[in-house]
Amino acid sequence: MHIIQKLIGAACFFCCFTAATFATTGHGVILMYHHVSDQTPPSTSISAENFAKHMQYLAENHNVVSLPKLIESLKTSSPLPGKAVAITFDDGYQNIAQNAHPILRKHGFPYTIFINPDVIGNESQQLSWEEVAELQKEGVTFANHTSKHKHLLLGSEQDDWLDATLKDIEHAEAVLHEKTGHSHKLLAYPYGEYNQALSEAIQERGYIGFGQHSGAVSSNSNFGALPRFPAAGIYANLDTLKVKLNSLDMPVIATKIQQPQLTFADRQPTQTVTIETSDILSNQLACYFEGQQISTQWQQSSFTFSFEKPLSVGRSRVNCTAPSQRHQGRFYWFSQPWFVPTEDHQWPD
Hints:
Largest sheet: 7 strands, mixed
Mean pLDDT: 92
Strand content: 15-25%
Number of domains: 2
Helix content: 25-40%
Distance between the termini: 34 Å
Number of strands: 20
CATH class of the largest domain: Alpha Beta
CATH topology of the largest domain: TIM Barrel
Order of helices and strands: HEEEHEHEHEHEHEHEEEHEEEEEEEEE
Structural class: alpha/beta
CATH superfamily of the largest domain: Glycoside hydrolase/deacetylase
CATH architecture of the largest domain: Alpha-Beta Barrel
């Protein structure tokens, strides 16, 4: 069992280039945090002490770039520094300013906070618009997390759902533009939930979408739902995070199922993924679901996985990894998210 199998099974602000200096690979990694505190929900939190260890490791081993720079480089296939990493936070909590910002400022790291404009300044744990302005002066990027952090797939069985959802996203972007002077058109889906229609629609309107499934990013990625590695809660372990930070985007050519939203009645999908295999040790590819390795079948340059029983209501994902032939110790990573509503079309937190 290779190292990634063991790990997965067990569970200047504007332009800052740090220690890593080897040649550009065209791949990057996006980290996702929520709370930096030991007084907040453990599942979405990391202590300031552990967060400082993460940032010190990045300073010594990676090149931290702003999220807009990373996306622009990938979209235009322009050069990136080796081992490029972008840092993001979801939800605009005050503890980001209180506990994370001093650590990030120490290293001169740029970072992005995805906020819900309609709750900024209206909830005690949220940043105020004055704090947003102060952080922005110090190089922090603020981006769209929709207006109020609702489940975007709620009501998706209705005819007017997509128009209403896009209206909400555009409202949030307009407020961001008014308050910050910028419209980056970077959208993080609340709870990481999206469907094919939504991801395609936001791209048509010039947005880049971000999920909460895992994986590296490259010019080959789906810019309607880019993966990010969660780095808090059970994923805060630096030893496992090191492997993820060195991951590469799986060169996916096609997937049989492009729709991540399932129905309660039909929630036992079989997914086939076709990849470009020239740099992949395909005989060592392994896929995992809920921490356990699942069976995969190969046919030429495609692999297939399925489930023994229907998926649970809520959010699920399968992670598949395979070693690179040329880059020793680095692994290609593919993550497939699935979203299942309750029988009466509700979406649990």
